[in-house]
Specification:
Blueprint (H helix, E strand, L loop, with lengths): L10 H12 L4 E4 L2 E4 L1 E3 L5 E8 L16 E7 L5 H11 L5 E6 L2 H16 L4 E6 L20 H13 L4 H13 L1 E9 L17 E4 L10 E4 L3 H12 L15 E8 L5 H17 L3 E2 L3 E3 L8 E9 L2 H7 L3 E2 L4 E2 L7 E3 L17 H35 L4 H21 L4 H16 L1 H18 L7 H19 L9 H16 L4 H18 L23 H23 L6
Parallel strand pairs: 4-5, 4-6, 6-7, 11-12, 11-13
Antiparallel strand pairs: 1-2, 2-5, 3-17, 8-9, 8-14, 9-10, 11-14, 15-16
Helix pairs in contact: 2-3, 3-12, 4-5, 6-7, 9-10, 9-11, 9-16, 10-11, 11-12, 12-13, 13-14, 14-15, 14-16, 15-16
Length: 585
């Protein structure tokens, strides 16, 4: 289990701080992650990687000459926010374009895509190659749907070496895409990992058994079997990874050159890995393959998970030259990198500059003050329920929902209090709170709560106090925005399953003339019932999709947290209503 931490919600931030202080030779801290502390004399295409924390040395450990130029780092097992990714892109860009590369997970795709769009609007040519190497997360003919695990190293290294060699953005994108299509991985696990502050691991495997095809967050695999011998595990890996359907198109297996990467997921010792690898090398050679530059160690971990993955990277001449090219990073070094080519990056002031608060009417300022109180009550209810939300998510997801919601709600409440104190209106307060929530929480839920708050804020404006119809219209618009952004619909087992009936009920009752307090209370009851009913659904979108029938019987954490929040807001509205019974809504 994870034993050393202070406040669980601060773990990722404190980890980044310590990492930067220990590795200033390679990296500097920027908002949202790290960027190189040096750069080449000649500008390069920038390679920006990233994902959730908890997988070191992915991702920050791979930043340095010959590899990545920056890494966006999210909360534990949660994607970085769009703002964080954008910040790292801007800090790493050298004017030659930027390639983004990351594992193919829903939250990462949402946030990296939003950041890409933002910098493109400012004239930065930015492109993406997602890593899709896990053979058990989708069928071979659906390679683009697969998730990324330890194979990210081959894609990142290839792209970084190409950038160092002077490839333009189009060339870096081309070889990164080729590396991804020629990379295959599979993993197994013997025990689950325990997040900081958690009492139990995210998942368990029966004593003496091994889960096959497991993902790096505990996503289920295809089977469970008795723990084999080291030779037996090697045989299992080779059987699946050399299956005809998994040999990349255009590769003639006889005589092919391949890089094997045997990766420990957190608590399997190096000595054990070496025993397994000895047999892997035999089997690869017996299959007529030439083993090139094998790697054995920890490259993409999952806290203290007891597990192992094997990656095969099928080379051609160009990929091989890029793979063996020199690199110098905190966690992955090879060859002799010419440091005379490097010079220190000039740092600029942080972006924590206080921005101006737009003018607002007295009515809107009073509404903002009340919204700040409401968001503080949301923070309190999420704090009280964070552990349970994490427990629910551990069954049907990756266990980060509670910590992410806690970080997001706390940041939103703090920002709201600041805006209200400075005389901001309702729209300004909700927009600033939306940015804070999304930025601090990360992950899919962080993005979606950012969308909700920002959309409702737009409906409110800064010129008047919102009435019942305005609130209802804002909630309806937010619901539409969430579905457009996240692509979920009712029945997919997401937040949307509680949000849509809540919004529809609220709109119907307000349209019939009910007070906001009464309409909200009834809609909250509907949301709670809808959230409870998600236990009967099978997830069909997002990271939980891989859990399939395993998630039946467990409520969706996003729907549950939404029901908690609207219920809490309902109590605040009820108090307002009966404290001021003649107040016009």
């Amino acid at each position: 289990m994870t034993r050393l931490w202070n406040e669980p919600a601060d773990f990722a931030d404190e980890m980044v701080e310590g990492f930067v202080r220990a590795n200033g030779r390679w990296v500097r801290k920027v908002h949202g992650g790290v960027s190189r502390s040096t750069q080449s004399a000649e500008p390069e295409t920038a390679v920006v990687i990233g994902g959730g924390s908890g997988h070191y040395p992915a991702f920050a450990g791979l930043v340095g000459p010959g590899l990545a130029h920056g890494a966006a780092m999210g909360n534990l097992f949660a994607s970085p926010s769009a703002h964080q990714v954008e910040s790292v892109i801007r800090a790493s860009d050298q004017g030659k374009g930027v390639l983004l590369s990351y594992g193919n997970y829903a939250g990462d795709v949402l946030h990296f895509s939003a950041a890409q769009e933002a910098v493109r609007n400012d004239g930065i040519d930015c492109r993406t190659v997602t890593v899709t190497d896990d053979i058990f997360s989708a069928q071979p003919h659906e390679h683009e749907k697969r998730r990324g695990i330890a194979g990210d190293l081959t894609v990142f290294k290839t792209a970084g070496a190409a950038a160092s060699a002077g490839y333009d953005l189009e060339g870096v994108e081309r070889v990164a895409t080729l590396a991804n299509t020629r990379t295959r991985s599979m993993g197994v696990a013997f025990t689950g990992c325990t997040l900081p502050g958690a009492d139990e691991p995210l998942f368990t495997v029966p004593e003496g058994r091994m889960a096959i095809g497991l993902g790096i967050h505990g996503e289920p695999g295809i089977d469970e079997t008795d723990i084999p011998t080291a030779a037996g595990l090697a045989g299992l890996f080779i059987e699946h990874l050399l299956a005809d359907a998994e040999v990349p198109d255009g590769v003639a297996r006889d005589g092919a050159r391949v890089v094997p990467i045997l990766n420990g997921l957190g608590s399997v010792k190096s000595e054990e890995l070496f025993v397994v690898f000895s047999r892997i090398a035999d089997l690869l050679e017996e299959a007529g393959l030439t083993v090139v530059d094998p790697q054995v160690g920890e490259f993409c971990t999952s806290f203290d998970m007891a597990g192992v993955s094997l990656t095969l990277f099928w080379l051609d001449d160009e990929l091989e030259s890029l793979w063996i090219a020199p690199t110098d990073t905190p966690a992955f070094r090879r060859g002799a990198f010419d440091e005379s080519r490097l010079h220190a990056v000039e740092t600029t002031a942080d972006d924590d500059v206080e921005t101006a608060i737009p003018d607002a009417s007295a009515e809107s300022r009073r509404a903002a003050e009340r919204l700040a109180v409401i968001l503080e009550s949301v923070r309190e209810v999420i704090d009280d329920n964070a552990e349970e939300l994490g427990h629910i998510d551990a069954v049907a997801g990756d266990g980060d929902h509670g910590i992410g919601m806690k970080r997001g709600a706390r940041a939103a409440a703090e920002e709201a209090a600041t805006v209200a104190e400075r005389g901001g209106g309702a729209q300004t307060l909700l927009e600033r709170a939306a940015d804070a929530w999304s930025d601090r929480a990360g992950g899919t839920s962080g993005a979606l709560w950012g969308v909700i708050l920002r959309t409702v804020g737009t409906a409110f404006g800064d010129s008047a106090a919102p009435d019942a119809a305005t609130v209802s219209d804002g909630v309806t618009a937010a619901t539409d925005a969430v579905m457009a952004y996240g692509k979920a619909k009712v029945g997919d087992k997401t937040m949307v399953d509680a949000l849509v009936p809540f919004a529809d009920t609220l709109a119907g009752l307000v349209g019939e003339g009910a007070s906001l307090a009464d309409a909200w209370a009834d809609a909250s009851t509907v949301a709670k019932s809808a959230a409870d009913k998600t236990a009967d659904l099978v997830p069909s979108i997002g990271r939980a999709r891989a859990h399939g029938a395993k998630a039946v019987g467990v409520t969706d954490p996003g729907a549950v947290s939404l029901a908690l929040i609207v219920d809490t807001i309902g109590h605040q509205l009820h108090d307002d209503h009966y404290r001021n019974p003649k107040k016009k809504e």
